[in-house]
From TrEMBL:
This is Proactivator polypeptide-like 1. The keyword Lipid metabolism applies. Keywords: Disulfide bond, Glycoprotein, Lipid metabolism, Repeat, Secreted, Signal, Sphingolipid metabolism. It comes from Pan paniscus (Pygmy chimpanzee). InterPro entries: SAP_A, SapB_1, SapB_2, Saposin, Saposin-like, SaposinB_dom, Sphingo_Act-Surfact_Prot. One of its GO terms (biological process) is prostate gland growth. Pfam families: SapA (PF02199), SapB_1 (PF05184), SapB_2 (PF03489).
Amino acid sequence: MDGVPSLELGLPRKQSEMQMKAGVTCEVCMNVVQKLDHWLMSNSSELMITHALERVCSVMPTSITKECIILVDTYSPSLVQLVAKITPEKVCKFIRLCGNRRRARAVHDAYAIVPSPEWDAENQGSFCNGCKRLLTVSSHNLESKSTKRDILMAFKGGCSILPLPYMIQCKHFVTQYEPVLIESLKDMMDPVAVCKKVGACHGPRTPLLGTDQCALGPSFWCRSQEAAKLCNAVQHCQKHVWKETPLHAGEHA
């Protein structure tokens, strides 16, 4: 499908290729990432990302393909929302363009690639292993040339909202810092952390009444205000489900 990043498996980038250049302001970084947040939250972008995630299922072993598709259908809106929740300030601090006082500073050191965590042999939820595999493959696929090209275009598209002098500087920033931006996105897609956040995985524990049902996804989260609070999904339900049922809006207010 046009506009959907290719998800062919790619090899990890060498650290020597991650050397950064100086001269980009904190403000430019903040503007670019803020625009990307809006892009990620648009309906068309959510659909594109969902299609991209579905392609991941095609490279999974046949035994888990069906589980992968169910996982994508259930959790892709939450995954997009989770990435979009990360503030521009945190992203720009993460790639070392903004200091604690949001002053610009140069990045000279290569950014270390964080290894993916080992699979947990414990039973942590019916979709837990499938979720972690999906996120691991997606993270690796950020290294493919076609995916990088689409992400680079998305970042440069954010520059269009700036005045001309800043727009030029913004595009230079995107070109120079593309490797570390890609690496930052990979780190934000840490399989264990993300899958716990969306409720697909939980730590080994004695189940409490109802909490295992959070792994059922939005169909359970948004059933009631209590279920949404239990699964930490109130914001998701307000944005994607409850707003579509005005007759019941008072119940969730």
